[in-house]
Design goal:
Belongs to the concentrative nucleoside transporter (CNT) (TC 2.A.41) family. The chain has about 525 residues and is mainly α. The protein is built from 20 helices and four strands. The strands form two sheets. It has a two-stranded antiparallel ribbon with strand order 1-2. Strands 3-4 form a two-stranded antiparallel sheet. The chain is globular and about 80 Å long.
Length: about 525
């Protein structure tokens, strides 16, 4: 089938071809390791012993080399694109240092299929009530698909592979690596069930890492809902994957391991397949399991948005006593969280808006924050007025991108109670340790999201700004005595001058005297 698709149109079948190669590789790898793993380990044991003896100084060489490479890359590649990328790098360093100082021990097409079921149940005008009848059914659809993937064993296989990769690359234990990998695909209450038999035996640092991974990521079932809001699917997917290893790194920095880890070895962890008798029952169970999730999302949004309106009314009343009636929860959050958003690399004029969104996410939930972010994205795409009554209506694409990464996690006070209650019910004997580390885990999860946002800020540069930087870089040979007396010099001057006129609107760059080349 794959060969036939490639013969008909290889470009169209490229994704299928790559996926097929990956599946074949991992299946062959599993078969090979099952048969020859013992011999391979025995053959390479002298090499392993050598590296183990020399690892103390080798790791410092690797870290210094990596740090030097990153610094050189920032100097020679990123810095020339603008200072914002360097601010993002500074923010990344700042968050790492903060965690060290306060350490405990110093894609949209697929989603459209959900519309068919919504239209059948609610009628053709279901989209008139977008959130209830279009967005929430996507959560049910995602939950159904995830349950089916669990039944056939694909999710367990994928989670084990990702967890194994984190374990060998980051040096974390099998249990916390497995939970972090699971959090890429499932929620913060479902992923600990992957290691349910082992929770009683985890160290305090491992419990902290398990909770941090839950706070730093989002569930696959709600991912589709955020995409339907209008938030970039590629950035959300990337943030979900990046936040898992970032959560482990921050968790171990914020609460280092000081106890003996009891659960060791990849063969000690067995993943449950579920109790469904066939794939249809698995689909039904997935849909039914989404009912409390959908209800929880709906009622929490109604409650939190109502509370927000109430708080704003009270704050406005209090502010009016001091001739400042515009006082609101948004204004307070924008000033409190503005330094954090600015250090991620957000444009200064947008940092107050992103600070407000972080406040929404922290004190309410990420659904509220993404809903407001989606509204601003929509206004930007519609080319609406940038300011209305002195209030900025939307942000730059770069700021939107960084905000998407910063908000991509369950780190809020509502999830704090859910995490404590969920883990305590699974491991009652560890309730005290869970409650003691929950606040620190929420902070660590928040910082993990901020760090992925910093990385996005280092890498991401909007197309116009990128090309404008290149264009203006070559304008050194242009001498302008007056608008009518311009001397063009250098090989690129004429092209770059016309390029600037194409990239910048005339109010910002006067091109009336110059006719750009077509």
């Amino acid at each position: 089938m794959v060969i036939a698709a490639c013969v008909l149109n290889f470009k169209r079948a490229l994704a299928l071809f790559v996926l097929t190669l990956l599946v074949i590789f991992f299946v062959c790898w599993d078969l090979f390791m099952d048969r020859y793993e013992g011999k391979i380990v025995k053959f390479f044991s002298p090499v392993g012993s050598f590296f183990k003896k020399q690892w103390f100084w080798m790791k410092w060489v690797l870290w210094i080399s990596l740090t030097a490479a990153v610094i050189l890359w920032l100097i020679f590649d990123t810095a020339k694109m603008g200072s914002n990328q360097l601010i993002s790098f500074g923010g990344l360093v700042m968050y790492v240092l903060l965690m060290f100082i306060f350490s405990k021990h110093p894609t949209k097409t697929f989603l459209e299929y959900a519309n068919t079921g919504s239209e059948f149940v609610f009628g053709k005008n279901y989209a008139d009530h977008f959130f209830a009848f279009k967005l929430l059914p996507i959560v049910i659809f995602f939950s159904t698909v995830m349950s089916m993937l669990y039944y056939i064993g694909l999710m367990q296989w994928l989670i084990k592979k990702v967890g194994w990769l984190m374990q060998i690359s980051m040096g974390t234990s099998p249990t916390e690596s497995l939970v972090a990998a699971g959090n890429i695909f499932v929620g913060q209450t479902e992923s600990p069930l992957l290691i349910k038999p082992y929770l009683e035996y985890l160290t305090k640092s491992e419990i902290h890492a398990v909770m941090t991974a839950g706070f730093a990521t989002i569930a696959g079932s709600v991912l589709g809902a955020y995409i339907s809001f209008g938030v970039s699917s590629s950035h959300l997917l990337t943030a979900s994957v990046m936040s898992a290893p970032a959560a482990l790194a921050i968790a171990k920095l914020f609460w280092p391991e000081t106890e003996q880890v009891k659960i060791q070895g990849k063969d000690g962890l067995k993943l449950d397949k579920g109790d469904a008798k066939n794939i249809l029952e698995a689909a039904s169970q997935g849909a039914s399991a989404a009912i409390p999730l959908v209800a929880n999302i709906a009622v929490n949004l109604m409650a939190f948005l109502s509370l927000l309106a109430f708080f704003n009314a009270v704050l406005s009343w209090l502010g009016n006593m001091f001739d400042y009636p515009q006082l609101s929860f948004e204004i307070i959050c924008s000033y409190v969280f503005m330094p954090f958003s600015f250090m991620m690399g957000v444009d200064f004029e947008d940092s107050f808006i992103v600070g407000k969104l972080i406040g929404y996410k922290t004190f309410f939930n990420e659904f509220v924050a993404y809903e407001y972010l989606a509204g601003m994205i929509k206004k930007r795409k519609e080319n609406g007025p940038l300011f209305i009554s002195g209030v900025k209506q939307y942000m730059s694409v770069r700021s939107e991108t960084i905000a998407t990464y910063a908000l991509c996690g369950f780190a809020n006070f509502g999830s704090l109670g859910i995490t404590i209650g969920g883990l305590s019910s699974i491991a009652p004997s560890r309730k005290g340790d869970i409650a003691a580390g929950a606040i620190r885990a929420m902070i660590a999860g928040t910082v993990a999201c901020f760090m992925t946002a910093c990385i996005a800020g280092i890498i991401v540069i909007t197309t116009n700004v990128f090309h404008l930087t290149l264009q203006t870089h070559h304008l050194k040979g242009v001498v302008a005595e007056s608008p009518t007396n311009v001397t063009i010099g250098g090989n690129y001057s004429m092209n770059t001058l016309s390029g600037c006129c194409r990239l910048i609107d005339s109010p910002s760059f006067n091109c009336t005297w110059f006719t750009p080349a077509i």
